Amino acid sequence: MIPDIFSSFDPIAFSTIINPLITLSTTIFIILSLQITFWLSINRIITSILIFIYTIIDQLSRTNSSYIKGLSTILSSIFILLIFINLSGLNPYTLSLSSHLIFTLLFGLPTWILIIISSATYKPKAFVAHFLPDGAPAWLNPFLILIETTRITVRPLTLSFRLAANIRAGHIVLRLINLYTAPAAVLLTVARVFLLLTSLGYLLFEIAICLIQAYIFCLLLSLYSNDHAH
Asked: Per-residue pLDDT tens for 175-188?
């Protein structure tokens, strides 16, 4: 039983057995789907997955992430995984994992740390010099270094919060629409048709949001690699 719209984000309100199995099965399917070119025949489902993979890889090739070995594979895997997790959160009585900040941080924070460590290890002087823009007055240098350090440090938090906030806000609005649509479904009125069409239209809109937010999440991570010393 879900007493209010915000309890849909409470893990206690859902089964502790079903959701881990769904997440585990989704993860295994994604890992296998990324290796289908080696041992599985191509079909429509695999072709549709490859479309998303090629889309994100094409975007990654335009950034410095292509110079960092393994980063393109990591980001493309995160992209496909986020798509499945975002869409699975639209199922009734299913916990939306991507609407929780601690979950999105598991993707954004390690990847950001990977880029920072790689840049600092590869070219330490260029990494340190990046904190101070060229041509700045000498008296302004300490403030610029502080501002640049703060901007880079909060990147994983803002990135993860953006994904969690957008997914959560969409689910709350969808829940509100369904609260009015369910009682009206038993009435033979124009309001029922209007609410059903509104609910269906917003559901399609929410599916698009799930795809777009997964793309934006990986896009911003790839743009962060432009600060990498290559």
From this structure: 887 777 777 666 66
Q: What angle do CA 18, 1, 24 make, to 5 degrees?
A: 15
- Largest separation between any pair of C-alpha atoms in the chain: 74
164 near 99, Cβ under 8 Å?
Answer: yes
- Cα 66 to Cα 63: distance, rounded to the nearest angstrom: 7
Pair 198, 227: CB distance under 8 Å: no
| Overall residue count recorded for the chain in this entry | 230
- Domain limits, the chain: 5-227
Provide long-range contacts, Cβ within 8 A and 24+ apart, for 68-77.
68/115, 68/118, 68/225, 68/228, 68/230, 71/111, 71/114, 71/115, 71/222, 71/225, 74/111, 74/114, 75/111, 75/218, 75/221, 75/222, 76/34, 76/218, 77/30, 77/31, 77/34
The predicted-structure confidence for 15-29, as pLDDT tens digits, reads as follows: 444 455 565 566 556
| 117: phi then psi, degrees, rounded to nearest 5 | -65, -40
C-alpha to C-alpha distance for 188 and 203, rounded to whole angstroms:
22
Q: What is the pLDDT of residues 117-161, one digit of tens each?
A: 888 888 777 777 777 767 667 777 778 778 888 888 888 888 888
From first CA to last CA, the distance across the chain in angstroms is 54
